[in-house]
Amino acid sequence: MASPATYFDALYLHSDDPWSVRTRWYERRKRQLTMASLPRERYRCAFEPGCSNGELSALLARRCDALLVVDLSESAIELARARLADMPTVHVEQRSVPREWPDREFDLIVLGEIAYYFDAGELETLARKIRATLSSDGTLIACHWRHRYDEALQTAEAAHASLHALCAMPRIVHHEERDLILDVWTTHGRSVAEEEGIA
């Protein structure tokens, strides 16, 4: 495989939507599952690495006071900036994570179809960065495709198992189906009902 940046930029040369995230029902449904799984209605400051062309980012922005989205690919960043141009609370940057992880606190971190591109050492770094920057009332959500993907360095199941072990936070949502796996962890472990004081 070429360098990650070269590989992803090559994909965007052929299409501004290489995974058909705008049009495929799987992708649209996955975004809705992700949003429905977030335990809080609003977040102060969220981070989405691997934002691609910004389709999920646009939904996240509606529930966040501030949102930082990044991608390795320059082409993806240009598309995300165009998609999110009318959303002043969203900041778009080109970064390579986990190495270029932002030095600020977030109460929401969203990992969508990104963790299985990392090897074991990078996942350890990723988990360390998450724990260092996630607030004391923070949420981590991860959602990944479960079918074979040649460019992935590990399976979705392995990536989620590593995140669960390395981040060492209470998991409040675990959802599996044939196509995807979705997990939500929080630093405090409270359910939605407990957050609202009704449980």
Automatic annotation (TrEMBL):
Pfam families: NodS (PF05401). Transmembrane segments: none annotated. This is Nodulation protein S (NodS).
